Structure formats: C-alpha cells, structure tokens
Amino acid sequence: MIGYLISLFNARSCFKELLIACIESALAAYEDTAGLADISMALLGPEISPIPNAFSVEQVLHTIQGALSNDSSTRVAAETHIRAWESDAAPGFLVSLLRIVEQQQSIDGSIRLLAVVIAKNAVGSSWRKTLGTREWSRVPDEEKALVKEATVSLMLSEPLERLATQLALLLTNIARFDFPGRAPNMLNQLLNVAGSQDAPPTQRLRAMKALYNVLRGLSTKRFVIETPQQPVNGSAGPGLGPMADLRQLSQQINAERELFKDKLAECFQPVGRLFGAHCEAFASLAPGWDFHAPMAKAAASSLTELLMLAPTPSETLPEGAVEVLGKMHLAMMAFTHLQNNAALAGISPQQRRMWEDLAGKLCERMTRCVIAALDHYAVPFAIMVTPFLELYVENALISLDAATVRAMRAKRRVGLVRFIAKALLNPFYRPEWAASSLPLALLPPDRRQLEASRSKAMVAQDALARMLSLSGGLCAPLVEAIISKYVALSPEELEEWRDDPESYARSMDVESGPDADTPRPIGVGLLLCMLERGGDDVVMALLKLAQRMQATSPPTQESVLMREACYRCIGEGFNHISTVVNFSSWYATELSPQLMARLPEFLNGTQDLSSSVLQARALWLLGVCGSNLGGEQWCGAYQLVVQHMASKDLVVALTAVSSSLALTAAIMDDQAALDQHEAANKPKPGMPNLMTLQLQETAAQQQGDEVDEIIAETKARVELRVNSLSETMSVALGGCFAMLERLVEVESMVRVLQLVSVLVEVMGVRILPHVGILAAALPHIWATASSHLATPRSLGSGASPGSKGSGTTPYSSKTGASSEDTGAVVRLHSALIAVLTHLVGKLRAVAVRDPQIAGVIFPLLNFSTSLGSQESECLVEEAFRLWNTTICSLPEVPQQMLDLLPHLGALLTRGKDNAAVFPIIESYLLLGAAAALHPLSNAIQTSLERASNDISKAVVSSSSSQPSVPPSSANGKSVLPMASRGPQSLSPETAAEAMAAAALADVMLQLFPQDTPALLSSTFRSMASLVAHPSLPLQGVNVKALNVMEGFLEVLGRLLLTGPGLYAALLEGLPEGASARFLDRWLQIASARFLEEVMGVRTMAMLGRYRRRIAIASMSSLVAADTCPDIYEPLKLVRVVSLALQAVLDNNEFRTDQTELDSLDFKNDLAEDYVMARRLSITRNDPIRNMNIPEKVRLLLQQLALRIGGEDFLRNLVQQHASLRVCGQLASVLQGVTDFSDSGDDELLYGPGLLPSRNQLLS
After folding, report:
1. In whole angstroms, what is the distance from residue 1004 CA to residue 260 CA?
2. Model's pTM, two decimal places?
3. Which ranges carry the Importin N-terminal domain (predicted)?
4. Which residues 6+ apart lie within 8 Å of 1215 measured at CB?
5. Does any domain span residue 1178?
C-alpha cells in the first residue's frame, strides 16, 4: 500500500497533497499494525473488511485493455472485474482511473474513454449511497476530494471532446451526492471558468456545459442523513439520546436544504449576466459569434434548470429573472424577424445559414426557459404572459408565412405552441382561480397577499381571454395559422404519400400516438386546449374556416389541404364541437355522397392525389365519429369503409382498415358491457343469506327503468351492427387478405391482421360460414411471416416450419420489408397468433380440425415456443394462450401437439414461464396423454419442487418484519433508518407459479393416486415445510401467501387422505415442533370464514365448504391411522371437533353445490372446453365429494374420545372451550344424530378464536 502511494507521488500537482496525507496516514497506521490488511483497516475504518490487494494503475489499465480484447475469455474476465469494482469502488480505484485518463499522450483514447466511463459508473453506483440501499462506499474522503479537483482539471484540459463530455458527467454524478454539503463551491468554480476572459474559449464553453449538466443532475439529488458518531466508550452525554439525535439530524438536513437553495440562488444572476452578454454578442454578429452562440445556449439551458429546481409553485421569481426574461423576449423577437438585422448583410450566404441555424437553436433554449418560468413561477410570471403571447402568437404564428414556420427545426415549432397551450392549461390563469371570491376566514395579511396574487393572475387570464375571443381579433387568425402551419400536410408529405404510401401511413400512425412530440400533434393539442377553454368562439372560427375552404372554387391544392386539416381538427375535437355539428347530418349531406361518388375512381385507380387526401380523411372521420351514427346509417357507412379496402391508393385502403377496426372495436366494447351486465344479474342457485338479498334489492332499486332502457338499446344496437357485419364479412375478409398481397412493410400487415382478429372476436360463432376464406388465407399469411424471419431456421430448431408441406409461397418477394427487424417479425407473428387464438376460441374443434388452419397453428406454435430464437422469447407468452386454447378444443391430444412436448421440457427446465406451463401439462394429463409426458417426469418434478421452494423463500421474506441494523461508514457514522423495513412484497408471478404448481399436483394425485406420492415426494415435503415454517406468524401473513398455503394444504390433505402414513415423512427433517405448527396452520386456514363467504359470494362459499370438508376427511384418516400424536393436544382437539361439526352443518349446502356442478352444460356453460369438461368429470368422481361426511365425523369423534379417555372426557374438554350449543351438537353426533342444522352466529356457536375470519388471518 505504501509503495503504491509512493509510486503515485510523481502525479500532477493536484494529486500530490492528498498522496502525502495518505502516505503519512498509512505510515502512522503501520507503526501499530503488522500487515497490509491492517493498513487498509486504518484507512477504511473498523467496520469495513480489508481489501486483499491494493489497486495499482498498471492493474486497472491491464484490466481495461482486457475489456477491449477480441478474445472472449479475456474480455469476459475483465468485464467481471470492472463490474465488481464499479459496484463498490475501493480506495485507489478511482485515482487509478483518473491517472489513466491523464495520460493523454501515452495511452490510446479509447482506453482513456473507457476509464472515465468506468469512473462515472463507479461514482454513480457507490460514491455515497442513499438511504434506499443502506450501503456505504469504501472511497475515503481524502480520495473523494482529490477526484473532485482532478475531474474539473482533466475536463478542462482534455483534447478529446467526447472524453471531456464524460468527465463532465462524472462531475455531475459527484454533485448528486456531495453538493452542497461536501462541495459547496462546485458551481462557483465552474462559473468562474465560464466567465473568465483569460481562459481559452474551449475551456469556458466546457465549464458552461458542465454547469448545465450538473444542474440537470441535481434534479435527482437526495439528501443523506448520517447519525452523529457516538463516543468511544459508547455512553451518551447528558441530554443526548434518540430524540436528541433526531432533532440534531433534522436540523442538519434542514440546514443542508437551505444551503442547497442558497447556492442555487447565488448562481442565477451570474448565469443570467453570462447569457445576456453572449446573446447580445451573437445577435450583433460580434467577432467570435460562433463561440457566443453555444455559450448563450448553455447559459439559457442552465437558467432553465435553475428555474426547474425551484419548488412549485413559487411566489417570487429569482432575483434578476425578470431582466433575463426580458432579454430573451427581445432576442427572440429579433431572431423571428431577421429582415430587421442589418448586420446579416455583411456575411456570406454560408455564414448566414450557419448564423440562422444557431439563432433557431438558441430560440429553442430560450423558449424552454420561458416555459420553465411559467410552470414553476406561474403567479409572478403572469405579468409577463401578455408580451410573450404577443411574441409567439402575433409575431410568430400569425405573422410568419407557412414556409418560414415549416423551415424551422421541429423543436422550435413545438416550443412556440407549447407555451400557448401551457398558459391555457395553467390553473392559476383560469377564471375559477383568478376571479373567484376570497375565503371569508382569511386573516388580513393573507388576504392582501392572495389579492395581490390574483390581480397578477388576472393579467394573464385577461390576455388569454382576448386571444380566444372572436372580438379580440386574434382567435380566427390563430386557428387558421395552427391549421395551415402545423396540421395541414406539407409538400414533402404529399410526395411521400405518392412515392412510399406505407411509410407515409406509418408516420401518420406514429403522430397519432400518445407520446408523439412533433409539430402536428402538438399543434392539434393546442387547438384542443383552445376549444376547451374558448368554447363557441373557437368552434365558430374553426367551422367558418372549414366552410371557406369547402366553398373555394375551383379548389386549389392549398384549399384541399386546408379543408382536410380542418376536418382532422373537427374529428379530434368532436367532443367540444358535437353541440354545434350533428355528425349524422354531416355524413348524410357531405361525407356519404363524397365517398360513394368517388369510390369507382379509387377502385379503378383513376383518382388524383387531392381526391385521395379528402377521401382518406372522410374515412378517418367515420372511424373517429362513426359511433354517433344510428341504425341504417351506421350499416351503410361500414359498408362504404369496407369497400374502400380495395382502393388502389394504399393510404386510402389502410385508412379504411383503421376505420373498420375502430368501428368494429366499438361493437366489442358494447358486447363486453352486455356480458358484464348479464353476469351481474345472472340468478345464483342456492339460498343467499340476508345480506346478499339486501344488496340485490338495493342494486335493483338503483338500476330501475333507466338502466333497463340502456341495456335494451345496447342489445338492439349490437344485434343490428353484427348482422350488418355478417352481410359484409366476405367482402371485409377478402379485402383484408387481398390487401396483404400489396403490402411490403410489416406494420401495415399487422394493422390488417388486427382487423381480422377483431372481426373474428366480434362475430363469434357467426364467423363459421366464412371460415373457408380464413382457412384459405392463413397458410399464405404464415408463409409471409416466415419470409420475414431474419435468419432461416430448420424445422428441427422449432423456428420456421412454414415451408414444410405447406406448398405455399410468400405473398411478396419485394425488397424493402424489414426482414432484419426482430421487433417487426415479432409483431407480425403476434398478430397472426391473435387471429388464430380468437378463431380457435370461437369455433373450437371446427377450426383446429380444418387442415389448412391446423397447418398454421402447429408450425406457428412450434416456432414461437422454441427457445432458440430472439423472436420466440418475445412470442412465447402469447403462444401459451394459443396452445392452451387449442388443446382445450379437442377431446384428445393430436400428434402435432405431442410433437411440441420437447419444447415444453425446455421451458420447464428454464423455469421462467412455469405459471403458464403447468396448466398446459395439466391439460395433457386430463386428456389422456400421460404416457407421452413420461420422458418429462423428472423435469416436471424438479419444476414443481423449485416452484414450492421459491414460494417458501418469498413468503418467509415477505413475512419478515425485523429492521436491518444500520451499517457504519468509514468514519464511524451510521445511516439512520427512516423507518423499519416492514414485510417485503410477494411478487404476483411467484404466487401464480406456486398456485399453478399446486393445481397440477392436485390433478396428478387424483389421476394417479398410486404413483404420484413417490414421484412428487420432495415437492410435497417442500409444501409442508412452508406450512410448518417456524418464521411464519399465525397472523399478519401476506394475503397471496395465505392463498398459496391454502392451495398447498388442499394438495397435502388429498395426499394424507389415502396415505396417512406419509405424515411423518412429510415433516421429517424440519425444525422441532413442525407437526404442531403444521396442524395449527391447517386448522386455522381450514376453519376460516372468509369475508366473501360471509357476504354470500357463491363461489367463495363453495370453496370454503370444500376446504373444510377435505380438511376434516384428511384429519379423520390421520386419527384412524394414529399417525399424528399432536392432534390430541387439548386445544387442537377442540378445534378439530369444531371443524368437524361445521363440516356436518355444511353438508346440505355442499350437496346443493354438487347439484349445480352436475347441471353444467358442455356447450353453454363450459364453452365446449374439453379440458374443463374433463376436470369437471374427475371432480364429480372425487371421493371427497361422495363421502358420507356426517358418518365420517361421527366415527372421528368416537375415535378421538376413545384415544383421550372416553366420550365424557371429550364432552368436558369441549365444554371448557365452546358454547353449550356446540356441546349439544357434539352429543347428538356421538349418539348418531347427524341430520341437524343451526343458524346461530358462528362466534357464539364455536367460541372465540375457533373459527377465525380472513381478516384475523391477515391482520
């Protein structure tokens, strides 16, 4: 260690001071210790384990060089070392990295770049850990100080710009942790360099950009609390203690927060002065204007970050902000009207283009700054809203011609309208706040302050109101400017429409997405804000503009594009316009005649581009507003849309597909609403309790005639529209499949297949007459999907079996399809899977038995469940749904599905998707394919055991409530936990896999009761170990964990029912007292009355009765075999008696449950699901179901009495812990009277604590 420190002595001057201190510290430590480990301990503190080897520059350099090696083993080993170092940087590591970065002449730039990236990551992950991780970096404070200083020095002197950028990001990571407490002068240091006239321009610009990066990084700043270091003897001084420590910590954190705000406030004016000077120099084309522009940009960005770091809302603008914003207003005004800048005439055209480009980028940064002021300082900024509206509305949007606006960069165009939209949406600038009456209870100072704030806000509110008023003179011109300069199609887009229609259609779809941040959707968004805020005036301005464009004769290209843009805005904002525009009338008078008259042109390909633009927009309007059409109008509109799928103009055809999809999806929404209503009102067999009857009566009173009328209207609407679909289905499907032959891009194909999928879903069994069209087309679609695979694969790999025996060829061999795009391939296959899943789900065996459809299903399943491709990794989840739907549709497993079993084995081994794999295995077993699964028996057993072990670990972890001990830092300080760590969450995926494992094990026990106990013995032991785990409390268990244990106990109960001798083996090797804990948990869960059961939820009541029945039957077997001595413990025995009596009381209702199961119809109730039918069959033959439970209970009670000393002893024991009614029922059962019922309260009947509620189990 000492030798290492001495070897660094010849470093740059910024290293020497720290190195001397480190050497002295190490030598002092060495006098009292005898080795390197002790020296490390002296440097790091007693709480940190020693480092085996000190870092050297040569060691780190060699490792970085290895990370860039072409040799795989060398590279992997080096990367492993680097990741370890990054995760917890040791003393000397960061210094070594910076020493490598410093060697500008002797070390290659790529190695130095990697070194600084590693340093950046190491600081970001372990510089000073926050409370969320409860860890502490091993970097000594002295080394941290050196790294901070060296980072700034290296950043300024680095010749390579990309390395300087990474060094700036390293400084940003440091600032997140150490500013302001440990680095209070960091911002001032950067500002001093940026403002120094003596520093080279490159260094000044780097310092300014670094300041911006640091400020942006501080937005994620977290303040770390440290506990005071305790005295050496461990005794606290007078008055000290936990409360004193907390007060001191609170003061410390508040002081650092105040320092943080003060340091940021100190920066605003200097940064503002730098911005003003450089912006003015750039605007006047002073010498070096190409340097002043990026300086002004970085300063404006820094000002934006400073404004955004303020709390929202803030009452006053930072000092100097009004002056800075005023300079920005003047600068943007000058940059908007360049004809007033005479200095531009003195530079060359090339320089002018460069200057204008820089001016535009500077405007973007200034607009972001203005928006930040509006967002975070809404009230004080309100007085400046008027001049900025004048700038953006009158001097930019309205005054500039469309060509000039479109020539701007997209970010600048977005900024122009975003400011206006944010002003309209700001709650402080709305009449609801600015003009509302003041609360009467306000104290005079508060009232005066609020009045002053509202008077400021009224200035902005009035300015916005004038802008939106037709009488103000700006509303109509602004609406026209937005539509012409943002919404209307550009000449370049028309050219793309003509030359590459699919690309154009895709770009329009992207702009329609929720995350679109381009000029057109932002412009439409502004218009929607205006419609919402301005009301009828904005509506009239929009409609008058549309009428004017429609009346233009003869129509020009400009008027056609404006008309199309107006129609788009009307459709986008129809919720605001519907009170003025009746869509049915508009459709009848304009849209329908236009679509019908021009349809022949589009089918023949004789249309012009202007006609295509209007036709596509009319079709789009039907998709957006078509739900407003009623009766025959809707049917006619849908037929027109379907007919346009055959248009020779692909954009029009694809628009027709999208509109058809929207109209069809609306039917599906109505169907879903009807299904929910039917399910909610379906009569439930059995006798509901009083609470259920009251709830049903209340619901019926609330619904009344109004709901019945709505449901009747919805049913009639759905029936009419589905009938219309039936009439046009052949044309629709034919149009979809014919269009696929013309498409090249995968996204276009996916859109068409989505429509086919939704059509199948909506039509249901009514699709049967058209199944021939689907069967004929699906093999061609599969061949097309196969042709888009990035790399051809053999059938043996499970990737692309489409060519085997299909005899089909892809639709198109055109170049240009995204064959290398894995995401596109996945989306295409995903769309095909969705079509087949819906088709099989609706037609069941009819679809699967069709040879053409089957010729796609099984190869597609083979491809999408193979683990050898990137595509299958993304498709496997959707493939499971198709797999499950297909196997449920057949009475037996076909050979093609048996051929998929090797994939099932690979999936089991991987263990990632077993929550979906286990039900599929269950289906194979239920349909009689057990022999085919025999080769997978070991994999099945291993996977089930792993699922049980995983859930056990997760449940124990989620139930642990012990807080961790705060770790200590190198200087003896420890992190104060803000709150003790409570139970950690149990992931739904882990719980779902465990429940699926329990269901599979239960089925295996029922189908193969002789073989399963031995095959799954380790799985059963794992289940039992969870139930009997000593770390699990009887109360306070996670609800998902409780559900899992309930499922496990059902499986174990079935196991013990026929094999009571296995009880001891289940608990063998578990900690002492496992049997008692197992019984306690079993009795607790079996006896629980869940809230849903108490409220009369039929399904939950049935499950509760079955749970109690199987538990008491299994316990009867244990008592009969005398294999569970703990069951005779007095309180447990009383709980067994109580549970047994409840099972007798449940008997009549249980019989009603079974009658309901027997009445289920295969077609209507089971939806022709053979797996569900087979599961119901084994349920009907379940010995638990057919058991004579009253007689079983009578024998159980007699055996219990015999084992503990007679019936009198049993009666006396029960009498001590239960009510007299329980004792009476016990006497009746012992005498052979088992046909009795009792409606008494459960708590009175069974005594406190004998029948816990679910809430008691969870609380």
Report:
1. 65
2. 0.81
3. 78-157
4. 1223
5. no
